[in-house]
Write a structure and sequence with these properties.
The protein has a 5-stranded antiparallel sheet, with no helix packed on it. A 4-stranded antiparallel sheet has the order 6-7-12-10, with no helix packed on it. Strands 5-4-13 form a 3-stranded antiparallel sheet, with no helix packed on it. It is about 15% helix and about 25% strand. It folds into 2 domains: about 160 residues, Deoxyuridine 5'-Triphosphate Nucleotidohydrolase, Chain A, CATH 2.70.40; about 35 residues, no CATH class. The protein starts with 5 loop residues before the first strand and ends in a 22-residue tail after the last helix. It is an alpha+beta fold.
């Protein structure tokens, strides 16, 4: 049974004009298409692993890339550096009626570690969507995982979106010396819903069961993790459906 995540525009007019969030799997990073599934295009076998498979065949990586939903940038954004002061940044956007970017108050950032190669000024994407999840479910908001190179990096946060009634804005940093266009529809954040649970850690050693499970997986040469250990995840949008991971067969 599917759980429902809602993206709620604040007005009917905004709903009609905004680019809508979409399942992350529908817009994969460009580097995936240029990466072959196997080194040299050929499979090879080994007792313990598949030595010619590439990152494109790594389902833990692909599960992270395709988890949840992307919120796209709903307007072109133009970034300019002042010639007299390279640390002064001007940001403009093409929408007239909807704010897209704001500056995060510096004192609110405290001693937060600025990523290397980025301006110390923190900005924030103004998110037009109120995000609503079922009771007991929160959302992880993170920079799109393993994404193509973009001139900004977002902070990661967790919000209890089953209770919070407002849009969540996304703090980000700009790369130094970047000047130019950040295109409309660029994914700016990845939204991964998850069920809240309480956990308590404990420590033990393997009594043989885990080793037996791994030995069982060695009854096949290929796709051991996929066939014996992985659970399929589905994130869909209304009636639009797509076969997950069809791209891995290319």
């Amino acid at each position: 049974m599917y759980k429902k995540i809602q993206f709620i525009a604040q007005t009917k007019e905004m709903l009609e004009v905004l680019d809508r969030p979409y399942p992350s799997i529908t817009k994969l990073p460009k580097w995936i298409a240029s990466t072959p599934s196997y080194i040299g295009g050929k499979r090879s076998v080994d007792v313990y692993n598949d030595p010619t498979s590439t990152v494109k065949k790594c389902l833990p990586v692909m599960d992270s890339i395709t988890a949840g939903y992307h919120i796209p940038l709903h307007s072109d954004v133009w970034v300019e550096n002042e010639q007299d002061d390279p640390n002064t940044i001007n940001i403009r956007w093409s929408f007239e009626s909807i704010q897209v970017v704001d500056i995060q108050k510096q004192e609110q950032m405290g001693s937060y570690p600025i990523p290397d190669g980025y301006y110390p000024t923190a900005f924030k994407w103004i998110n037009p969507w109120i995000i609503k999840t079922p009771p007991g479910w929160s959302c992880l908001f993170t920079h799109p995982l393993h994404s193509d190179n973009v001139p900004f990096k977002c902070m990661t946060s967790i919000v209890d979106t089953d209770k919070f009634p407002l849009p969540v804005n996304f703090v980000f940093f700009l790369k130094k010396k970047f000047s130019g266009l950040i295109e409309k529809e660029t994914p700016i954040i990845q939204v991964i819903p998850f069920k809240r649970n309480d956990f308590k850690s404990e420590f033990s050693y393997d009594h043989g069961f885990l080793k037996q499970q791994w030995e069982k997986a060695h009854s096949v040469f290929f796709d051991r993790y996929k066939r014996f250990f992985r659970s399929q995840k589905k994130y869909e949008q209304g009636d639009v459906k797509k076969c997950p991971f069809a791209f891995l067969n290319k």
